[in-house]
């Protein structure tokens, strides 16, 4: 696609489908045909998405993409045999052929006593307006200019900022429709917008990279474009002069965007699939004390305008507020209907994932956490995937800052931090007040009592 073609195609920005009812009727027709084709149960998910993404490097357009996707997936049950098929063609003939393929596939699969739709009693009865859709009327030309401004602000921070990985702007809008043979049929729209920048600094032989970004459902809630660039530039310059550390054990502070990963590993361990497969380092941990007593973790799926909000899950089950960790004690497992049946439990409305998880914030700012740590490592970047979901062993490449006397002393790189997650969770000393909401998991910084830091 040429630049001129993309500008013309996205001149008015990315918009939502004009008539959700037309898409809902496609789902209803697919469900009706599934019944006539012999399915004893069926569920259909349909999505329509449009997006515009641009990236600029050193002032020049590096990529410009305008995307429009749509797809329908159907799962049918013939007794307890399951078949799944999908299509990007929403014409009646194509949908009917997709349904026939799913029914045919079901005839070849083995019966599974746990297979089937979520219970009808669990379906969402009301679909609240969660304020999730705010299309951004930005043209391709305007998006390119915003990306240029973001990158220029970053490079202007310091003359040692000599190169760039680029400034980027993206906007996406879509509609999700779900229906099943319980008679459930509903849809909701959503948007997602972001601006990011990554730059490189060089001082002699030393070269460092860092970034910053902002993201929101409502484009008016994005951080100031130039402020994003300046933050990226300042973070990069601050990393110049990075050193390696001698191997040691010390307290470690994870900044919020990385602390989110620690919570993510916890969620993976308490998902129903990991539990019934017996592949979790928190196997059978429901009711046990996993964190210190001050740690609270809640799910709030109906926060207006939040990135993780949803009125129902991927099976049509109503999403609800839920407490996952109370006073450090695990309250249960993250379940869809299949995992729930395998474990003899009830679905928690988490087919497709969790929705707006919130770790209760403490009272300490980042500066106060550093003073509380006094001496140790503040981690700002992680590399690699050295996490064993079965044993909980954790080992990641890292970079950040060494802390002395409660202040940042110097940047560090080329180190590895290690421990066992079950032990690390018990060694959480504090959760910060600096909560990051740029994802569906909201948390502040995490201060851990001690980790092994491998360096020179």
Using only C-alpha atoms, the radius of gyration works out to 24 Å
Class by helix and strand content?
alpha+beta
Mean pLDDT comes to: 95
The level 1 CATH classification of the largest domain is Alpha Beta
Strand order of the largest sheet: 3-2-1-4-5-6
**Could you give a short account of the major beta sheet?**
6 strands, antiparallel
Assign the CATH superfamily of the largest domain.
Answer: PmbA/TldD superfamily
What is the N-to-C order of secondary-structure elements (H for helix, E for strand)? HHEEEHHEEEHEHHEEEHEHEEEHEEE
The CATH architecture of the largest domain comes to 2-Layer Sandwich
Number of strands: 17
Helix content class: 10-25%
């Amino acid at each position: 696609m040429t630049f001129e073609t993309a500008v013309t195609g996205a001149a008015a920005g990315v918009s939502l489908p004009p008539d959700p009812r037309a898409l809902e009727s496609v789902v209803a027709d697919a469900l009706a045909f599934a019944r006539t084709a012999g399915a004893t149960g069926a569920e259909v998910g349909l999505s329509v998405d449009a997006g515009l993404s641009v990236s600029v490097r050193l002032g020049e357009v590096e990529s410009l993409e305008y995307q429009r996707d749509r797809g329908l997936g159907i799962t049918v049950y013939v007794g307890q045999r399951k078949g799944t098929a999908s299509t990007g063609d929403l014409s009646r003939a194509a949908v009917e052929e997709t349904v026939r393929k799913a029914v045919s596939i079901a005839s070849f699969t083995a019966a599974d006593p746990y297979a089937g739709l979520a219970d009808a009693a669990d379906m969402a009865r009301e679909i609240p307006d969660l304020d999730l859709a705010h299309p951004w009327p930005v043209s391709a030309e305007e998006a390119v200019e915003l990306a240029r401004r973001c990158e220029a602000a970053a490079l202007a921070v310091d003359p040692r900022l000599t190169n760039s990985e680029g400034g980027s702007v993206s906007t996406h809008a879509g509609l999700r429709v779900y229906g099943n043979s319980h008679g459930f049929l509903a849809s909701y729209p959503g948007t997602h917008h972001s601006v990011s920048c990554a730059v490189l600094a060089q001082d002699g032989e030393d070269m460092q990279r860092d970034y910053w970004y902002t993201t929101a459902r409502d484009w008016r809630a994005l951080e100031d474009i130039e402020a994003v660039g300046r933050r990226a530039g300042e973070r990069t310059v601050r990393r110049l002069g990075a050193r390696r550390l001698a191997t040691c054990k010390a307290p470690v502070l994870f900044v919020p965007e990385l602390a989110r990963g620690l919570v993510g590993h916890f969620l993976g361990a308490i998902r129903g699939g990991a539990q019934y497969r017996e592949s979790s380092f928190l196997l059978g941990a429901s009711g046990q004390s996993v964190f210190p007593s001050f740690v609270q973790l809640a799910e709030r799926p109906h926060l207006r305008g939040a990135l993780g909000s949803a009125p129902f899950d991927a099976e049509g089950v109503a999403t609800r507020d839920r407490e996952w960790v109370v006073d450090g004690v695990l309250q249960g497992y993250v379940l869809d209907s299949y995992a729930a049946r395998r474990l003899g439990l009830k679905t928690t409305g988490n087919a497709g994932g969790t929705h707006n998880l919130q770790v209760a914030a403490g009272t300490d700012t980042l500066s106060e956490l550093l003073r509380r740590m006094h001496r140790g490592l503040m981690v700002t970047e992680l590399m690699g995937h050295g996490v064993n979901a079965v044993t909980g062993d954790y080992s990641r490449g890292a970079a950040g800052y060494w802390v002395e006397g409660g202040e940042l002393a110097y940047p560090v790189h080329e180190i590895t931090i290690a421990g066992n997650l079950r032990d690390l969770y018990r060694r959480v000393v504090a959760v910060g007040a600096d909560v990051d909401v740029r994802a569906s998991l909201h948390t502040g910084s995490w201060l851990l009592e001690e980790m092994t830091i491998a360096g020179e």
